[in-house]
Amino acid sequence: MKGNKHLNLEDLVPHRGDMLLLDEIVSMSDSGAHARAHMHSNHPFRVEGRGVPAWVGMELMAQTIAAFSGRHARQAGEPVRLGYLLGARAYDCERDSFPEGAVLDIHVREDLRQDNGFGAFSGTVELDGEILASGRLNVFQSEDVAPGFASESSDNHKDGA
Question: Which CATH number characterizes residue 97's domain?
């Protein structure tokens, strides 16, 4: 399982297997989250000789947003719901790819949340404190419960998640 002892990723996001691109949640607050992802040699999007394409940074930010939303659902005693990345505005990358072996820090901050499920987040992908990518992601959280989360009780997840 990926995550730390207080914020287990698999309790917060519906992604599994190779499509769970984050390795841990470092911290959470009421307004944002900090996650970490390793660009290992068997990363599912790795390109031989180039590393991981920088566009993957959008998905890293989106999964960090999913973890943020999953935690807030758990705290409210609700199941984790499906979320969708609608698009990105001004996604800027300083490099074409993230180097193999890099440990990236992903930071997201909630800028807007509407009652109808729409939201916007600002985010960055950093390597050793240097911002490699940044952008604003528009997201939608549906009323549909994520597969595998419908029958779970949040009572087992109150220790920080």
Answer: 3.10.129.10
Residue-wise pLDDT tens digits, 41-67: 988 989 998 999 999 999 999 999 999
160 domain residue, yes or no: no
Residue 2 structure tokens: 């990926």
Give the chain's domain count: 1
81 occurs within a structural domain? yes
Return the structure tokens found at 123: 């985010």
Q: Is 50 inside any structural domain?
A: yes
CA distance linking residue 52 with residue 41, whole number of Å: 9
Look up the pTM and report it.
0.85
Torsion angles phi and psi, residue 63, rounded to 5: -70, -30
Q: How far apart are the first and last CA of the chain?
A: 15
Of 145 and 100, the structure prediction assigns the larger pLDDT to 100
In a domain, 145, yes or no: yes
List the domain range (segments joined by +) for residue 90: 9-149
Backbone angles phi, psi at 17, to 5 degrees: 60, -140
The SS3 assignment for 120 reads strand
Q: Which residue has the tokens 């959280």?
A: 141
Q: Length of the chain in residues, anyone?
A: 161
Over residues 118-131, the mean pLDDT reads: 96
